[in-house]
Design brief:
eight-stranded mixed β-sheet; 25% helix; elongated
């Protein structure tokens, strides 16, 4: 009897342990905690791209145990959204067409081919189109398709954010990071423009139709062929000193001095003109106070883009020799050395050339003979292409008084002639037009060059050419490219 009484406490203890364990594991089972806990599941949206899903699967591996489920979804917008908590802008897709396509906007008319590509793939070998007149590289919040990935989890801050915040932290081109650079053609504020200035009294008059556009660029360039002097009149290629205000009105940052007329007003006027540019913070290239000064390359280092700007005279005159002011004469050995030095620095290289001029534009009707770049002495096409072969990324002709064709060649692009930005010959249609090259650089890479035609009339006020005429004119130039 005594032995049975001694066994009862042991049995009671065992029963208690069993009941407690059953209760403990039962609670875990029904509440899905402890050893019965079900880990969080990752749910992927069906419209994730293969590369996006692959990147995510590299984070949410089978070994990773989450406390809560996470739902990964995708959305797209035609305007740039402001990402909320758990949302990431992962890509921007922009519409592009062939480099030689004359379209500007895909909503204007739909013929021709175009496609959307990632902004990471955009380069100057294709043509970026605007969407409903919104050009991405001008707007940055429109003109493309903005793709968002969203992570939805009850424990986003604790579990998901540490895993994905660095994975999807990405910088996109913006106004603060894209360098905009406008290259323009021949400027000669002289002869008839002097006479017009005496009538209107204000040099800013000539820039009224173009100043808002050109002054909006980070850098604005022109090739000015005439020097400032008190002796300017309606017959000579010399500029009234007040014409500096025309250049300031367009926000001029860089003046090219490769022209063959900068010495028409004498060495004193040329030197004083250099002082005027310096006083107004305008950089010079392709010309100077003597041969050494004229030959100094212009290095531009802005917004993480490094550009070497070289400019040469290979024309009918105007080049400096020794101690005289004037344009930078082209010498092959100098060009090779300067291009090589720039490439070794990792710079983007622009080469401007004052070449021989086509003279058949002197007609009161549309004469397209000068559209083609082989209507002057020498092998213009061969010479410009040779500069690309030497390593230049972009070659631009700044002597043509009438816009000429352009082409992709090798690893670069060539614009054979930009025409007249400011000039006085309003009676010849060919000389009233010019091309503005609107360059967009991002982290040292040329994303795009947008070609913008301009025109002036008897008022001598330059303005942007209307869209319909621009398409016709660009098609005319493109159709006869080499």
């Amino acid at each position: 009897m005594k032995s049975r009484k001694k066994g009862r406490p042991i049995i009671l203890i065992i029963c208690f342990i069993v009941v407690a364990a059953a209760a403990f594991f039962g609670i875990q089972f029904f509440t899905k905690t402890g050893i019965f806990k079900i880990p969080g599941v990752v749910y992927y949206a069906e419209d994730l791209k293969d590369d996006e899903k692959s990147k995510l699967e590299g984070v949410f591996t089978e070994e990773l145990v989450l406390d809560k489920d996470v739902y990964i979804s995708v959305s797209e917008s035609n305007t740039k959204p402001e990402p909320a908590e758990g949302e990431f802008l992962v890509d921007i897709f922009v519409p592009v067409a062939d480099f030689y396509d004359v379209r500007e906007d895909i909503s204007e008319y739909e013929e021709g081919e175009y496609k959307y590509i990632s902004i990471d793939e955009l380069d100057s070998k294709v043509k970026l189109l605007s969407v409903d007149d919104n050009y991405y590289l001008d707007e940055f919040d429109k003109g493309g398709i903005f793709r968002i990935i969203k992570f939805d989890s009850e424990k986003y801050d604790e579990e998901i954010k540490p895993l994905v915040s660095d994975l999807f932290s990405k910088e996109f081109p913006s106004k603060d990071s894209v360098l905009t650079f406008a290259q323009t053609g021949v400027t000669a504020l002289s002869r008839g423009m002097n006479a017009k200035l005496y009538q209107v009294g204000d040099a800013e008059y000539f820039a009224e139709g173009i100043s808002d556009y050109l002054s909006g660029f980070d850098l604005t360039h022109t090739s000015n062929e005439s020097s400032f002097t008190d002796y300017a009149n309606s017959e000579n290629i010399c500029s009234d000193k007040r014409f500096i205000n025309t250049l300031l009105a367009i926000g001029l940052d860089i003046v090219e001095l490769t022209g063959n007329h900068n010495l028409d007003c004498g060495a004193t006027a040329a030197l004083e003109t250099l002082d005027t540019y310096k006083e107004n913070g305008i950089k010079t290239v392709g010309g100077g106070s003597d041969a050494n000064d004229a030959a100094v390359p212009l290095q531009l280092n802005e917004k993480d883009s490094n550009i070497t700007f070289l400019a040469y005279n290979l024309s009918t005159g105007g080049a400096t020799h020794g101690d005289l002011p004037g344009a930078n004469q082209y010498y092959e050995e100098n060009a090779i050395a300067e291009i090589n030095a720039a490439k070794e620095r990792g710079d983007f290289v622009i080469v401007d050339v004052q070449y021989y001029e086509c003279s058949a534009y002197a007609s009161e009707y549309e004469d397209p003979i000068c559209d083609y770049p082989q209507n002057v002495p020498g092998d213009e096409i061969g010479f410009f292409r040779h500069l690309i072969d030497l390593g230049a990324d972009l070659v631009v002709g700044t002597s043509a008084h009438q816009p000429q064709t352009f082409e992709l060649y090798g690893n670069g692009a060539i614009y054979y002639g930009l025409g007249n930005l400011f000039f006085d010959q309003a009676w010849w249609p060919g000389t009233t037009r010019s091309l503005i090259l609107a360059h967009y650089f991002y982290n040292g890479k040329l994303l795009q060059t947008k070609v913008i035609p301009t025109v002036y009339d008897k008022s001598l006020q330059t303005k942007l050419l209307d869209k319909e005429t621009s398409r016709w004119f660009l098609n005319r130039l493109i159709s006869i490219r080499p």
